[in-house]
Design goal:
The chain is mainly α. The chain has a single domain, classed as Vanadium-containing Chloroperoxidase, domain 2. Helices cover 60% and strands 4% of the residues. It has a three-stranded antiparallel sheet with strand order 1-2-3, with no helix packed on it. A hairpin with a 5-residue loop joins strand 2 and strand 3. Helix 2 crosses helix 7, helix 3 runs antiparallel to helix 4 and helix 5 packs parallel to helix 8. 42% of the residues are buried.
């Protein structure tokens, strides 16, 4: 019998003890693995798991952040153009992260059992974190609600990706940095200046 079997979820499992085996996410027992495992354990609480799943679902393809931008444009008619530019910038950051994923092709963690299904099999960078950070910077530049309400939701969404077991901390950190930098580079455009 082979030492490794492909499990139902596609992860590799060690025949010796049946535990998930991770071949590509960094050093087993390294800081990325340990932090992910610790955060994933929080998902054992059904309430935490439910919130993490909801955040993960709402952030799929940047949906929550795009909805916030469209709602902002609908409500704040005076700054409609700025809201739409901020929304476009958030979508652009998300698209950039998807492009980086296709280049890097880091597999998702397999040493934990994920609590959600994912749209793709690559984890670096986290596109949820990218769009969350981009929205925080882009909508935050518009002040008011964006500056106060979005950051805690964005941070919770970033953490949720580790709680549900689909991203390493380094995936989330890289995604957040990519989103923040992308939005910061476009900040002048949001305000209508080129």
């Amino acid at each position: 019998m082979d030492e490794l079997d492909d499990d139902v979820d596609g992860s590799l499992r060690d025949d010796v003890d049946g535990s998930p085996r991770d071949d590509a996410g960094g050093e087993p027992g390294g800081i990325d693995h340990r932090l992910l495992s610790a955060l994933h354990e929080c998902g054992a609480d059904s309430r935490v798991a439910a919130v993490a799943r909801a955040l993960s679902w709402s952030g799929e393809h940047g949906a929550l952040w795009l909805a916030v931008g469209i709602a902002g444009a609908a409500v704040d008619r005076e700054r409609r153009g700025a809201w739409l530019r901020a929304t476009a910038l958030t979508a652009t950051a998300h698209a950039v992260s998807m492009g980086v994923k296709r280049i890097v092709r880091r597999p998702r963690p397999t040493h934990v059992v994920p609590l959600v299904r994912t749209a793709g099999r690559h984890s670096f960078p986290s596109s949820h974190a990218t769009s969350a950070a981009a929205a925080t910077v882009a909508y935050g530049a518009l002040g008011a609600l964006g500056g106060r309400a979005i950051p805690p939701v964005a941070a919770a969404m970033c953490v949720s990706r580790m709680v549900v077991g689909v991203h390493y901390p380094s995936d989330v950190a890289a995604g957040a940095a990519l989103g923040a930098v992308t939005a910061r580079l476009g900040a002048r455009w949001i305000g209508g200046r080129s």
